[in-house]
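Q: Okay, next protein. This is EndoU domain-containing protein from Flemingia macrophylla. I've checked the sequence twice, so it should be correct. Can you predict the 3D structure?
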Amino acid sequence: MDDLIKGLIDVTIGGGGRREEDRRDPEEERGDRSWATVVSGEDDDQPRPHHQQQQHQWSKERWEGNDQSYSDYDRDHRCSKQSRPQHSDYQSENVYPSNKPDEDEDPWETVGHKHPKRTKVPKENWNSYKQPLDEQEYSNEVNEYDVEPSRDELADLSRACERLWDLDSNRLIPNKDYQIDCGEGKKVHQQEDMAQESLFTWVSDDVFRRPTFSRFLSLLDNYNPHQGSKEVVTSEERQEQAAFIEEISRTAPIKYLYKYLASKNHVSGNYQEFKRMMTNLWFDLYGRGGTSASSSAFEHVFVGEIKQDKEVSGFHNWLQFYLEETKGNIDYQGYIWPRRRGEIPDSETQLLTIQFEWNGVLKSVSSTLVGVSPEFEIALYTLCFYFGGEDNRIQLGPYNVNIKCYRLGDRIGSVFPIAEC
């Protein structure tokens, strides 16, 4: 208990100097076998669908001796299929947003040959998010949900995580609030681009006007993507961070997280102190790649970083993916085949294993929950960080998921979902 309290104090006050753990990239920890071999199923005898077996030949030359390319992945990676969420507080009537830009705005700047239908992300409120906290406007508190954890949930992390899934009323509905095109499947080593289009065909404008979504998106441009570059955080950006935590703290998933932590005597009964702890946990800077104050849990997990050896690390958020697609910075290259037999992902799948290039740098394997709310992901990953281990096998609706969680001392080094069949 003393070590636990000390860890919380360290997180709250910012942690102090850089430790030995801070010099390692946690995503480079992996099993004895190459993740690429395991993920792609090369050690399996499972047959592939006939049309996929004959689609493409692939080459390994580019990847030989490059285990680091798969350091963001776990040996048990799978794919599975998602059924539609049963509820959403925001059901957009928008079907296919226009691909035509406004006459007074510049057309889309895209790279490559992919030109999906999409709309620009509204940014009219972003500047106001940088104002002093007491001058900002927030949503009303969400009080219609029971956010008290049950005895079973307190005893079983998986039950608690599934409860969070049920509380995410802000989760989007596939083909209603957005649409994706998964393209074709591939193995990790495969070099061919298996997606003729971008991953996101369109996302409704209404999505970006939801308070937690909008505030989350406004944070994404605060970071230097190059790992090892010191981050400079302005006072306005700190206000933006704290205001985001304030906004999500009014939602059911974060209220449930607080009740859970309090029930475990992990936080005090003061909700304001809890918010400050959450701000420090996700936004305080620490060392990564040999440079102090160059990274944070939020930047790594949700924004992504580019290593000096030209690999993408982190980057597990669908909103960041969409935003970067609209800028022409991402080339989606297809989904990764399930290691074992499973459903082929389609437009309703909300847990994807994919490959893409970001700013010309390859992310050979990445996994992300599509359409979930920012408050859900923050609550889920925080819960697993405090009460789970490196592997957290849980149930999220129709998904069997392993939430992989790496620590840098008492900080979140990386956390991301892995689909399990």
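A: Here is a summary of the prediction. The CA atoms of residues 99 and 303 lie 26 Å apart. The two ends are 36 Å apart (CA to CA).
Q: Noted. On to the next one.
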